[in-house]
Design goal:
Shape of chain B: globular
Largest sheet of chain B: 6 strands, mixed
Helix content of chain B: 25-40%
Number of strands of chain A: 0
Oligomer: heterodimer
Number of strands of chain B: 13
Distance between the termini of chain A: 32 Å
Largest interface: A-B, 25 and 26 residues
Radius of gyration of chain B: 23 Å
Strand order of the largest sheet of chain B: 5-6-7-3-8-9
Largest sheet of chain A: none
CATH architecture of the largest domain in chain B: 3-Layer(aba) Sandwich
CATH superfamily of the largest domain in chain B: P-loop containing nucleotide triphosphate hydrolases
Mean pLDDT of chain B: 83
Number of helices of chain A: 10
CATH class of the largest domain in chain B: Alpha Beta
Mean pLDDT of chain A: 92
Strand content of chain A: under 5%
Low-confidence stretches of chain A: none
Order of helices and strands of chain A: HHHHHHHHHH
Number of domains of chain A: 1
Number of domains of chain B: 2
Order of helices and strands of chain B: EEEHEHEHHHEHEHEEHEHEEHEH
Number of helices of chain B: 11
Strand content of chain B: 25-35%
Structural class of chain A: mainly alpha
């Protein structure tokens, strides 16, 4: 391939990516499931737990942390979960109605469509992270001291893990209605395990371990340590890496474009 | 699996856009396409007709690379739809049967998106105008009527400026006016030199648009010819006229192809095969008889279709390459 041709192809693929991002952004704003659950819900939770924290200050379950301190990572992870669960609702539909197949007859592979979708979802997640951290510290006074390398690692792994779980649903579920049911069950299960209703420090026995090392709970822990300037425990990081690997493998292995 | 060595040189010459050789495709135990061979010339409108489930869609999906043949080979401008799928997708536009767009995607957005996918696209605005859907540019897919969806689907197949357009069940679900408009569009594609592969189960559509038609039945190519030739081969022609002088049956019977003569009032109706009207006219002229109110109706593709697909044993064509 000559370099001129490579340049032409490079320009074209940049134009394709730009057009895909533009269209997918518009669609994401018109069908704002991801935006609503991924950014709207965290804002609501931030306000709720922020005021609870102000009303009931002090030590939660002997952790030395305020309510808002504990819930900042939970709110971030809830954003990831909300976005991940919105992925099947559009992608399974787009496959079911033949849109992905239609795109696959063009020079663009539907994976590029998925890529654009994931980029936009990643942006939503980053917006939610910024809202949770800035709002939590500036408005509600959480004393954050972020360990930047571990924070970035935890965010990257956490988003990869939970988005991959969303893609597992896309891979294994055939119809939009089934995706709705599976997604709903998964959503509330992951929310519980992340500590939304009860923190792992407030329970004992096996449930505490299940919560700590669950797909959503382990990400919450990794974030919690890194936003308070501590190194996340190795077992927690291993759990997150393990889940990410398994989910990504299953998603890739069973993915269908048609 | 597939892909025997590319042993057969392209014998049809360089004007073939698509050459299919011994194509076989099975779904489990069901043979969807059974040893089909034909070639499609550049710039022609090529129809593929056949009953439901005959293997029409499977055949075109193999051409566009959406399905992988079990055996046989396909050449699209010398390229293989499997090995060179990326190259083929750049110049083959496809309109799929039963394919929708995301409900909230708007007409203009979809067209601009698809234009961005191709190396030398047409101007989306011009495509919108030529398809008469400019006024719905900002309408979301879910709010389109059946006819508008169909036009958008055709627009998407054309906006990439393809050399070959594959149109599957083009006018299904359209009202008669929209069908006429769509046909006019296809005629315009022919003028632009686009090779069109048209899958249809409407015989009038094939008759109006297609240069040649392949009839696929039970996965087998049962006939390939011009619509007129297929109709003539299977059907009967009917000629009705009013002679200037009475004409006797012997004169008419002597004309080649005449089978039945009927008289009703002033009218004489002759049915038979072959180029009936011309033969009759020359015979009558020789007798010094002129005719008025001449009406000739050739057996149409519809008649031929029913006759050919009712044959329980599919006929193997002697010659399929044209």
């Amino acid at each position: 391939m000559t370099s001129a041709r490579r340049q032409v192809l490079g320009r074209r693929s940049r134009a394709q990516i730009a057009a895909l991002l533009k269209v997918q952004t518009k669609l994401s704003l018109r069908e704002p499931y991801g935006l609503g659950v991924g950014v709207g819900l965290p804002i609501v939770l931030l306000v709720v737990f922020g005021f609870i924290s102000k009303a009931v200050p002090g030590n939660v379950g002997d952790t030395g942390l305020n309510v808002i301190d504990l819930y900042i990572p939970v709110i971030m992870v809830i954003s990831f979960i909300g976005i991940a669960i919105s992925i099947p609702s559009t992608l399974v539909r787009d496959r079911e109605i033949g849109w992905l197949r239609r795109v696959s007859t063009t020079p663009v592979h539907p994976s590029q469509l998925l890529g654009a979708q994931l980029v936009i979802n990643f942006v939503f997640a980053v917006v939610a992270i910024v809202i949770a951290m800035v709002g939590g510290s500036v408005i509600f006074g959480a004393p954050l001291s972020v360990d930047i390398p571990f924070f970035i690692l935890s965010v990257a792994l956490g988003i990869a893990e939970i988005f991959s779980l969303g893609l597992v649903v896309v891979a294994l579920v055939r119809t939009q209605s089934a995706a709705g049911i599976v997604g709903g069950v998964l959503f509330f299960g992951l929310l519980f395990l992340s500590g939304l209703w009860v923190q792992p420090d407030q329970v004992t026995g096996p449930l505490q371990y299940i919560m700590l090392y669950s797909p959503s709970g382990s990400v919450v822990r990794a974030l919690l340590y890194s936003v308070f300037g501590e190194t996340p425990p190795v077992p927690i990081l291993i759990a997150v890496i393990g889940y990410t690997t398994v989910f990504a493998f299953v998603a890739v292995r069973y993915f269908r474009w048609e | 699996m597939c892909c025997p060595p590319e042993s057969l040189p392209n014998q049809v010459g360089e004007r073939a856009a698509v050459t299919i050789t011994n194509l076989v495709k099975r779904y489990g135990g069901l043979v969807a396409v059974d040893d089909v061979s034909f070639s499609i010339q550049q710039g022609e409108i090529f129809g593929i007709i056949g009953p439901n489930g005959a293997g029409k869609t499977t055949t075109v999906e193999c051409i566009s690379g959406l399905r992988v043949p079990d055996s046989g080979s396909i050449s699209v401008y010398g390229l293989s739809p499997q090995r060179d799928r990326d190259k083929i997708r750049e110049f083959v536009g496809v309109q799929l049967q039963e394919s929708s767009l995301p409900p909230r995607l708007r007409v203009g957005e979809a067209l601009e998106l698809f234009a961005s996918f191709y190396p030398t696209p047409l101007d989306p605005q011009q495509v919108l105008e030529s398809l008469g859907i400019k006024q719905i540019e900002r309408v979301a897919f879910k709010n389109l009527s059946g006819g508008q969806k169909q036009r958008l689907s055709i627009a998407l197949a054309l906006v990439g400026n393809p050399k070959i357009a594959i149109l599957d069940e083009l006018t299904t679900g359209l009202d008669p006016e929209a069908r006429r408009d769509t046909w006019a569009l296809i005629e315009r594609m022919r003028e632009r030199g686009v090779t069109v592969i048209l899958v249809t189960h409407f015989m009038d559509e094939a008759e109006t648009l297609c240069d040649r038609v392949a009839l696929i039945n039970h996965g087998v190519l049962s006939v390939l010819d011009t619509p007129e030739a297929i109709a003539a081969q299977a059907g009967v022609n009917r000629v009705r006229f009013v002679p200037s002088h009475p004409v006797d049956d012997e004169t008419l019977d002597a004309v080649r192809g005449v089978q039945v003569i009927e008289r009703k009032g002033r009218y004489v109706t002759v049915t038979g095969t072959g180029d009936l009207a011309a033969s009759l006219m020359s015979a009558l002229t020789a007798e010094g008889i002129t005719v008025s109110e001449l009406e000739a109706r050739s057996g149409n593709l519809d008649d031929a279709f029913i006759k050919l697909t009712k044959d329980s044993t599919p006929r193997v064509p002697e010659e399929v390459q044209v």
